[in-house]
Design brief:
The chain has about 375 residues and is α/β, with parallel strands linked by helices. It has helices at about 40-50, 95-100, 110-115, 160-165, 170-185, 200-210, 220-230, 245-250, 265-275, 300, 320-330, 350-355; strands at about 1-10, 15-25, 30-40, 60, 65-70, 85, 125, 130, 145-150, 155, 190-195, 215-220, 235, 255-260, 275-285, 305-310, 340-345, 360-365.
């Protein structure tokens, strides 16, 4: 057993509390990682609020980055001393995994978001002998160290700061993947992004590397719209400052968007996003509302080739997408540093407050 410090969520709506907990011995395909940085994501806050049925008390965190300390007996892809990014896990055997789409793994929900346990039913984290909810995205990285699975560990080079590596695990992949893997804008096409937090700004940066010529950022926060322009948006729309968001976007795009990324998780906004498309336009849904919500769709409006595409983590294959974004960042073409503000792990509740208030785009916790 290894004693570590972790930010424990006791119950839905309770603040995070730093406590000593214990990590289990490694199973054959697991990796022990000393966490150097962990991104804070809205998914963490949704689970911590009690809105999703993750077993609490537990340890969250799913954008980890750090150094491998120890590996299980069957691990072959990383070794102690390697720098790694911890992303989502997958089984490797189902149809989604075999076809190169591990984000659609048959075991995605229990093994990443809801289960809080390994596949064998055990938790890698205990407190005073009692199991806690752990294995969150197969890592639970709001801690000084985490047990991850070999499949969700990506070996990376050593020339970017830790705080820029951590957001790659989820938020940045989600936004970039929505553009590159799903919407794939062609020459002269238009792309609209609703919500320019980490995911939306990553989508903007990805679109700026595509042949799209009109890139529209939509958000209520003027500072974020200004940053979106600096990162590649050609136009911005603040819904509080226009009479009709849909009409404004249709005007900018010359009759409707070719592609839309909906990153707010707000079903009213999703309805607007659908209405913003032109014939054969497509909406990529990456923002997740609470379970059970729906959006009415006019069937006749959809018949002219319009599409609505649900996405998990940008339909990413982590072993190829993470290194690609890192190469672009290294070249100065994907400025991750513009998104990040660091906080000590001990100030996790301040980071939560700042992100919730819109003062910080991507808080990154440093143990």
């Amino acid at each position: 057993m290894t004693t570590i410090t972790a930010a424990v969520t006791e119950s839905g709506g309770a603040p995070f509390a730093l406590q000593d907990v214990e990590l289990d011995v490694l199973q054959d395909h697991e990796v022990l990682v000393d966490i150097k940085a962990a991104g804070l994501c809205h998914t963490d806050l949704t689970v911590a609020s009690g809105a999703l049925p993750f077993p609490l008390p537990g340890v969250l965190g799913h954008e980890g980055a750090g150094i491998v300390r120890e590996v299980g007996a069957a691990v072959t892809t990383v070794a102690p001393g390697d720098r790694v990014v911890l992303s989502f896990t997958s089984c490797g055997a189902c149809e989604g995994c075999r076809s190169g789409h591990p984000a659609y793994c048959e075991r995605w929900l229990p093994d990443n978001l809801l289960g809080g346990r390994r596949a064998d039913g055990s938790s890698p984290i205990t407190r005073d002998g009692a199991e806690l909810g752990g294995h969150f995205f197969a890592q639970s990285s709001f801690a000084t160290a985490a047990i991850a699975g070999e499949r969700n560990v990506v070996k990376v080079s050593a020339d970017l700061p830790w705080e820029q590596l951590a957001p790659l695990a989820c938020g940045v992949q989600t936004g970039a993947g929505a553009v590159w893997n799903a919407l794939q804008p062609g020459p002269g096409q238009s792309l609209v992004v609703f919500g320019v937090g980490t995911v939306g700004l990553a989508a903007i940066m990805a679109a700026a590397l595509s042949p799209a010529t009109r890139i529209v950022a939509v958000d209520l926060v003027e500072e974020r719209l200004e940053l979106a322009r600096e990162l590649g948006a050609t136009h911005t729309v603040n819904p509080a400052q226009v009479d009709d968001v849909v009409a404004a976007i249709q005007k900018i795009t010359g009759g409707g968007a070719h592609g839309v990324v909906e990153a707010t998780g707000n079903t009213t906004v999703l309805g607007q996003a659908v209405q913003c498309t032109r014939a054969q336009g497509e909406v990529a849904i990456v923002g997740a509302p609470p379970f059970g919500q729906s959006v009415p769709v006019d069937v006749n409006f959809m018949l002219p080739g319009r599409k609505i595409h649900g996405l998990t983590i940008g339909d990413a294959e982590i072993q190829s997408l993470v290194p690609a974004i890192l190469d672009l960042a290294r070249q100065g073409r994907f400025p991750l540093d513009r998104l990040v503000r660091t906080y000590p792990l001990s100030e996790i509740n301040t980071a939560v407050a700042d992100m919730s208030a819109g003062r910080t785009i991507k808080p990154v916790l440093i143990p």
